[in-house]
Write a structure and sequence with these properties.
Layout: H1 3-36, E1 38-39, E2 41-45, H2 52-59, E3 65-66, H3 72-80, E4 85-93, E5 97-104, E6 109-112, E7 118-121, E8 127-130, H4 133-138, E9 141-143, H5 148-163, E10 170-174, E11 185-188, E12 195-196, H6 202-215, E13 223-227, E14 235-238, H7 245-256
Parallel strand pairs: 2-5, 9-10, 12-13
Antiparallel strand pairs: 1-3, 4-5, 6-7, 7-8, 10-11, 11-12, 13-14
Length: about 270
């Protein structure tokens, strides 16, 4: 038999023996791995508002579980069906722990639900859960947000305001149709005057508002409205001071009223 053929046959036999041995090792390893992944514990990571035990119970996860027998796709869908869960992931941690990682929805604003009760809105404008009292106090409320488009615009404004650390917290964002005068309008914490945004680039308007508040002009205290609808300007609508004719009319009205306490003592009127 030719020497090359003998070498080839020996090499083939060695490969086959090696493959057989490798397959046996892999099979034994798989059996041990599968046995190690009999899950005796379920742990949940990422919960802030959710109760981990309630979430596990709602998903039907009850140890012991076998990792290879789990329908992981169906479990993830069941977890993500919870109103507060934006995303979920399952991970096996040997020896015997199932880790459920969740990312909760982050409430951005509050709106009114079908029955008038306050509901939470996420960053997409989706209403996903009832709002607690602390949510109503902490988050901006959207007003006149009857359509999905208006809600999406409202949460976009709420997110932009939250990123501006030098602006007061938003208390109310009044939306309404685009043709409505002065919409959208903001109510900010500690600021008496409403802020009229109107149409246009939001980042530019909020930048002008930041500069105006940082300047701390005296007229802000008496302003009835801060108008940002006009390019590169922030216009203050200020009530006129009560001087001149208005002040004289008030003085005449006061003089025409009878003085029931001439001595200024605050006591009853006396007659002689």
């Amino acid at each position: 038999m030719p020497r090359r053929l003998v070498a080839a046959l020996l090499a083939a036999g060695g490969f086959a023996a090696g493959w057989s041995l490798g397959s046996a090792v892999l099979e034994a390893t798989a059996r041990r791995w599968d046995g190690a992944l009999t899950l005796q514990r379920v742990q949940v990571a990422g919960c802030r508002r959710l109760d981990p035990a309630q979430l596990v119970a709602a998903a039907g996860l009850q140890a012991p579980l076998r990792w290879t027998a789990l329908d992981r796709g169906a479990l993830v869908e069941k977890l993500q069906a919870h109103p507060w869960v934006a995303r979920a992931r399952l991970t096996a941690l040997p020896p015997g722990t199932l880790l459920v990682g969740v990312e909760e929805r982050r409430p951005v604003a509050v709106s009114s639900g079908p029955q008038g009760a306050a509901v939470l809105l996420d960053a997409s404008g989706r209403a996903f859960a009832p709002a607690a009292d602390e949510d109503v106090d902490a988050l901006p409320r959207l007003v006149d947000d009857a359509s999905p488009e208006l809600r999406a615009r409202g949460v976009g404004i709420a997110r932009a305001l939250a990123e501006r650390r030098h602006l007061p917290a938003a208390r109310e964002i009044v939306l309404g149709p685009p043709e409505a005068w002065g919409r959208p309008t903001l109510r900010l914490a500690g600021l008496t005057a409403p802020v009229v945004l109107g149409p246009g680039l939001l980042a530019d308007k909020l930048g002008r508002l930041e500069r105006l508040l940082a300047a701390d002009v005296e007229e802000l205290a008496d302003a009835e409205r801060i108008d940002l609808r006009f390019a590169e300007r922030a216009i203050l609508k200020v009530s006129p001071p009560r001087t001149g004719a208005a002040q004289r009319r008030e003085g005449a009205d006061a003089a025409s009223r009878p003085n029931r306490d001439p001595a200024g003592s605050g006591g009853p009127e006396t007659r002689g």
